[in-house]
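=== RUN LOG ===
request id: a7f3
mode: sequence -> structure
chains: 1
length: 305
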Amino acid sequence: MKIGKLVIVGRPNVGKSTLLNAMVGEKVAIVSNKPQTTRSAILGVAHYPEGQLMILDTPGLHVPHHRMNAQMVHAAIGTLSQAEVVYVVVDSQVSPGAGDRFVVQEVSRAQKEKTYLGVFLLLNKADAVAKPRLLPLIQEYQSWFSWTAIVPLSAKTGLQLPHIIQLTFGCLPEGTGQGVDQDVFTNQSMKSMAGEIIREQVLQRTRAELPYAIGVSIEQFLETPALTEIHAVIWVEKSSQKGIIIGKGGLRLKEIGQGAREEMERLFHMKIFLNVWVKVQKGWRDNPQLLMDMGYGTEGASLGS
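=== RESULT ===
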């Protein structure tokens, strides 16, 4: 049985979390079309006939402007020391830019300290790009790094996903170690997943300026056989942002809560009572205690020993 430790890196909004969920076959990371949706490294376990892949999805690498963003970038770069295989994901609909080059430079720097079994470049969203457009992209990226392989794929549709999985296992040696149980897909607690599910609902229902300014903390999580009671706070930086989330007559907040509760019940297979408030805290993205309460610490997830 082969067991591999895999890290997915890339700039924001290239589809890393969608790829993680597709490989695992379960929703373990929230997704949206807004950059910086992923704020901490998230572990997913993908089970295949060949073995298991322990996969870390990481926050998008970017220039940080707040303590929270700095911790996101630190967590993403820190995962590279744990990897045996690295996926560098880029958006094939966009020409290579400074952000993509920064990601490749970080992988190259990390490789000087640790030899990877494979480093793959994945041209995501290839289903939306004409084939003639892909060739110059491949040629450009080939000049940046000595890749194990460059694979155009679509995390959303599954295009070429079996191929990259086959290539990945081809890099891994036969192992004697024990994997995890077949029903284990992540090491995230239900409490942390609950906070992320609420944030996902906010991202889906608010305007573009809000994603960077909202965070979610779980104030209370009481699990009983009959009912799990969750009390959560959505943090914003301005009163105007609070009004956007609450909506006219509280309708948007009600929709956020209902959508989050239904998603939790589907994923957790239990009855949920969810109570959500919105609070204003100016500069919360630079508040160490609030960031820790939200799970945005500097360590992030781990691929284990």
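=== NOTES ===
The domain at 2-171 is CATH 3.40.50.300 (Rossmann fold).
The two ends are 17 Å apart (CA to CA).
=== END ===
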